[in-house]
Amino acid sequence: MKQVPALKIDGITIGQSLAIIEYLEETRPTPRLLPQDPKKRAHVRMISDLIASGIQPLQNLSVLKQVGQEKQLSWAQQVISSGFNALERILQSTAGKYCVGDEVSMADLCLVPQVANADRYKVDLTPYPTISRINKSLLTLEAFQVSHPCRQPDTPPELRA
Fold first, then answer.
1. What are phi and psi of 68, to 5 degrees?
2. What CATH number has the domain spanning 34-147?
3. 3 state DSSP class of 118
4. CA distances for 114 relative to 50, 70, 91, 99, 157, angstroms
5. 24, 53, 88, 130: least CB-packed within 10 angstroms?
6. CA distance linking residue 76 with residue 78, whole number of Å
7. CA distances from 85 to 15, 41, 77, 125, 157 (A)
8. Where is the GST C-terminal domain positioned along the sequence (predicted)?
9. What is the dihedral of CA 101, 129, 67, 60, to 10 degrees?
10. Does residue 156 have a pLDDT over 90?
């Protein structure tokens, strides 16, 4: 599909974020990105899927081009807000310090770039205190600071940190 991300590793190329994360979890399980507890693991996958399948694709650049320049901002804001409304309700029952409890998980890896997109499209985060609190906690961690979307080589100059 000529999309990113793609990871060349162990003699194979894997596309799609969640497939990459699951492969890394299975082949390099330290640190764990999926909890041992099956209920917590289900919550992590549910949150990750909500973000990766329910929010992000609807406001990515290929969709926004189809929406048209004049409607892009309002479309992105509506899609992100709709997804964040559902996500905020879920996180109110699953969150500890992070999305699911107090350990960083695959859900957190999905959350930070989506909040960055919300900022990019000027979504008011006031109605989402749990999302905002978790994102703020995650951004204190070096791994999230150095991998933030605003620090990627292909980030447009106006969005760079």
1. 100, 145
2. 1.20.1050.10
3. helix
4. 11, 22, 15, 13, 19
5. 53
6. 5
7. 28, 22, 12, 10, 30
8. 37-157
9. -30
10. no
Cβ-based burial of 3 (10 A; exposed 0-12, middle 13-18, buried ≥19):
exposed
Tokens of 134: 């978790």
How would you label 64-101 residue by residue, b for 16+ Cβ within 10 Å and e otherwise? beebeeeebeebbbebbbebbeebbebbeebbeebbbb
62 residue type, one letter:
S
Report domain extents, the chain.
Answer: 34-147
> What confidence score (pLDDT) does residue 5 get?
80
Residue indicated by tokens 């990750």: 48
Q: Pull the structure tokens for residue 53.
A: 């399948």
DSSP per residue over 36-98, as a string? SSHHHHHHHHHHHHIIIIIIGGGGSHHHHHHH-GGGHHHHHHHHHHHHHHHHHHHHHHHBSSS
Using the predicted structure, report yes or no on whether residue 131 has a pLDDT greater than 80.
yes
